Amino acid sequence: xxxxxxxxxxxxxxxxxxxxxxxxxxxxxxxxxxxxxxxxxxxxxxxxxxxxxxxxxxxxxxxxxxxxxxxxxxx
Length: 75
Description:
Layout: E1 7-10, E2 13-16, H1 20-25, E3 34-38, E4 43-47, H2 50-65, H3 67-74
Antiparallel strand pairs: 1-2, 3-4
């Protein structure tokens, strides 16, 4: 399902309004956190998952600390 939504000004920030159907389908309420993931196709918005967020932070840390080794493996 593709739904268009506008980016709107909210104070000094911007916001995208989620239709109530999406809010219900993904069990989101006003004030809930969501993850924004940059992909090759654009921005992916997913419900916030504390476990997934910790895993992503750990993966980023490992990639930073092992940048040279990962570069060699990719060659």
